[in-house]
Amino acid sequence: MKYELIVFDMDGTILDTLEDLKNSMNYTLKLHNMPERTLDEIRSFVGNGIHRLIELAVVEGTCSEKIDEIHKDFMKHYEVHCADFTRPYNGVNDLIKTLRNRGYKTAVVSNKADAAVQDLCIQYFPGLFDLAIGERPEIAKKPAADMVNLALEQLQVSKENAVYIGDSDVDVATARNSNLDMIAVDWGFRTRKFLMEQGAETIVSNPEEILELV
Q1: Can you list the domains of the chain with their CATH numbers?
Q2: Using CA atoms, how far apart are residues 22 and 16, in angstroms rounded to an integer?
Q3: Which residues is 183 bridged to in the sheet?
Q4: How far is CA 93 from CA 69, 80, 96, 124, in A?
Q5: 32: number of CA atoms within 13 Å, CB side?
Q6: Tens digits of per-residue pLDDT, 59-111?
Q7: CA–CA separation, 165 vs 204, rounded Å?
Q8: pLDDT tens digits along 107-135
Q9: Are 190 and 168 in contact (CB under 8 A)?
Q10: CB-based contacts of 28, cutoff 8 Å, min separation 6
């Protein structure tokens, strides 16, 4: 074993959540008489948490108070509909089960709201993660290293014995800021070309490839 702990991002890495994010966003935009957004637009907006997604999706010049109001309405809708169309990417469940059977610790670190992270892990990956951490008010979100450092601390694993797996520029920066090795995946919300431009050095196109690298 090259590593002891495998840390996964969630959206675009282990779960395809894009359709549900788009539907909740467009429901909320329509509620506030704003133009709806396409799937590709939502794809380009995600990665920095729900609040940033909303900032990018609303009409330019929307005041912060209105954005906060829209955020509350989005969360109410998304809490109910976060798993309508969300599904694990092909091969991801088998990958995580194999890692667990081989003795690896596994964790999720995501900028998605913590309540949704916990619910989705229970629904799609029951018993497959030692720890899951989502966006919380008291801790800086990615690409800051704080969430990853918390996972390392709680699971008692050194940086040298952990690897971070993600699909976005935020994830590349998170691994860099955390001083962790990184494996980027190109089946998520960003292209291989984009990931290379962001500095990703190891990129895979199939979950099975990860087993060969860890």
Answers
A1: 5-16+87-213 (3.40.50.1000), 18-81 (1.10.150.240)
A2: 12
A3: 165
A4: 36, 24, 5, 8
A5: 21
A6: 999 999 999 999 999 999 999 999 999 999 999 999 999 999 999 999 999 99
A7: 10
A8: 999 999 899 899 999 999 999 999 999 99
A9: yes
A10: 54, 70, 73, 74, 77
